[in-house]
Amino acid sequence: MTSGRPIGRSFRTSDGLRLSYVTDDYTDPWQSNDTLVLLHAAQGCARRFYAWVPHLARQFRVVRLDLRGHGESEVPGPNSTLDVDRLVADVIELIDHLGSERVHLAGSSAGAMIAMRASMNHPHRVQSLASFAATAGMRDTAFDFEAWAAAIKAKGMRKFLSDSIWHRFDVDHTDPGLVEWWLDLAASSNADLDYAARFVSVMVNLDLRDGLERIACPTLSVVPGSDPEHSLAEYEILRERIRNIEFVVFRGFRHNITDAVPDRCAKQLRDFLDGLRT
Q: Buried-most residue among 10, 96, 177, 234 (CB within 10 A)?
């Protein structure tokens, strides 16, 4: 049951796309342990959660998915369907592929928004939900994300992200090596810029606010307190509308808390999941 090492695998979705994922399982092989699925942010990949694994994989089978068009997963064709329901279907089909009835589902930014939608539409498959740096939608934000999609295609991924790096990290207090690694990984994981722009447009137009009341599972929301992309009030909509939620603010941090302070995020998640067992 347990691998004792990370294993890269893949599966085929119902529309024929090959999606890659990594399993990290250091649980006791004679025990029956829960599965935790991690969903990365836009322009991300499964490798972005590397520092989370030591905190979580001793207690859970940790599965890190490369979203379609990201990382090692295949890029769908330009005429393929791409919307949040297709992205949610990928997650549910992964859960089926894993042979799990229910999983703990955690995501970062866009990955958390996909996780929220999955929790709304498939409540019997989601044991708990954890959202990091995600609001319930981007339509009312002050930033012009449609312009961002155009800039990705015009500049290339690394240049685009480098120009807006202050949105994501406090670069004066972040290891420069982390920033360079993050930029290199984002560029290598998103080689198809047309698809990257399509993905951003899907997430920009997503509005989950009217469905938040349907999230019934225990929920953790961890948000950055100094996010240039979203006001704290946008994040607090989750606390107001999700019934069973633990809401935590990381004061002073910009959007990419899951990369800037991965140990702190993973420990927050582990403490939340441990609390569900008591």
A: 234
